[in-house]
Amino acid sequence: MRSRDHDRIYLSPPHLGRHELNYVHKAFEDNWIAPTGPNITGFEQDVCQYTGAAYAVALASGTAAIHLGLILLGVEPGDEVLCSSFTFVATANPIVYQGATPVFVDSEPNTWNMCPVRLREAIEDRIRVGKKPKALILVHLYGTPAQLHELLAIAAEFEIPVLEDAAEALGAHYAGRPLGTFGAVGVFSFNGNKILTTSSGGMLVTNRQGWAQQALFLATQAKDQAPYYQHSTTGYNYRLSNILAGIGRGQMELLEDRVKKRREIYAWYKEKLREVSAISFGPHEPVGSRSNRWLTTILLDANQTSATPEQVRQHLESRNIEARPLWKPLHQQPLFASSPTYGGAVCNDLFMRGLCLPSGSSMTEDDLQRVVEALREVVL
After folding, report:
1. What is the residue-wise DSSP string for 245-282?
2. Distance CA 170, CA 147 (A)
3. Do 112 and 146 contact (CB within 8 A), yes or no?
4. Least crowded by CB within 10 Å, which of 59, 135, 162, 351?
5. Bridge partners of residue 173, in order along the sequence
6. How far is Cα 205 from Cα 277, in angstroms, rounded to an integer?
C-alpha cells in the first residue's frame, strides 16, 4: 500500500513476513503455549547456524541476556565493568543489577563506538587505583561494528573478558564474521524496533557449553536436580516463550533481506540529501566490515544550518514522521552521576548534533521522499 500524506511514518516498526504465523499456529495446534517447546530449540539453532556460535539461549530480552552474561563472567558486588557511554541504558543497567559499578568509556568519531585510546586509559587508571575491571561490555551502536581488532587486543592484553552487546547488530559482520561471536558471550535483542523482532526477546550466544547450560539454568528459576522444587541459587524468569520463538523462526528466514533493505534506505537518504551540506551521515563502517544499518543517523553542522536536532525532530513530527535523538550518553544520566568516566567529549558532541531517521524495512519510496522533503524544509 502506498503511503498517504497523513499516514504515520514510524522510526523502526516491526516488519513481519509470511511464515511467522506457520510456526505460531503449529505451537497452538500442539499446545506448546509455554516457555519451552520446539520453536525455542529451533530458534536457537537458527541463530547458531547464522552466526556460527556453538550455543544459543533464547531469553525474554536482550537486557536479560546481558545480565546472565555478566553472571557467567563472574561479575559480583563491588566489581567494576567497562562500558560504552554512548549506548542505551539497557547496556549498563545489568551491571547495577549485579551490585557492580559501570566505568564509562567515550566513543571515537568514526564508528561512534568505544574508543581504543580511551579504553586503554580507563583500564590503566582503574588498575592504578586497585580496581582492575572485571569485564568489558562492547557495544556495536546502530548496527555498526566497533574497532574490534584494536579493542579486543587491549582486552586480551589485560586479560579482561568481553561481553559483546550486539543487540542492535544482528546481520552485521566484521572481517567476514558475524557480530556477537567475538566476545566470550554475545547478546542480541529482538525487541519490537529491532531489525528482526519477536515482539520482545533476546538471545545469549557463546562457544562454551557449560556457560550455555548455566545461563539456561539461571533463566528458568535455577531449579536444582530434584523431584521437588529445590533452589540453591538465585534464579530468574528470563526464558523466551515458545510462541514468541515461533515469530523469531519466521523472522530469521528474512534476515538478509532486511539487512539489504536497511542498507538501501541508508544509501537512498545519503544520495537524496547529498546536496544538503548541513547534513552528514554516520557512523562509518570499519574497513572490511558490514553494518546492518539498523537506523539511519545524521549529524547537523551548526555552521551550515541554524536548525537544531530537536527543531528538526519537531518539524518532522508536525509532518507525522517519527524521528528520535541519538542516545544520550550514560555518563550524563542522573542514574550514573557518580560512575567513573573516561573522555566524553566525542559522544557528547554526537548527542548534541545527531538524529535518527525513519529506517523501517517496510518503508516505501513515497515514505522516504516524505522524510527527505520534510528535512529539506527545515534544514535548508
Report:
1. HHHHHHHHTTHHHHHHHHHHHHHHHHHHTTT-TTEEEE
2. 17
3. no
4. 351
5. 178, 290
6. 42
Q: How many residues in total does the chain contain?
A: 380
Q: Cα–Cα distance between 177 and 183 in angstroms, integer?
A: 12
Contacts 24+ apart (CB under 8 A), 309-312: 309/352, 309/353, 309/354, 309/355, 311/378, 312/355, 312/375, 312/378, 312/379
Tens place of pLDDT per residue across the chain (380 aa): 334 456 999 999 999 998 999 999 999 999 999 889 999 999 999 999 999 999 999 999 999 999 999 999 999 999 999 999 999 999 999 999 999 999 999 999 999 999 999 999 999 999 999 999 999 999 999 999 999 999 999 999 999 999 999 999 999 999 999 999 999 999 999 999 999 999 999 999 999 999 999 999 999 999 999 999 999 999 999 999 999 999 999 999 999 999 999 999 999 999 999 999 999 999 999 999 999 999 999 999 999 999 999 999 999 999 999 999 999 999 999 999 999 999 999 999 999 999 999 999 999 999 999 999 999 999 97
Task: Report the b/e string of 102-138 with b at 16+ CB within 10 A.
Answer: bbbbbbbbebbbbbbebbbebbeebeeeeeebbbbbb
Nearest of 249, 216, 222, 254 to residue 235 by alpha carbon:
222
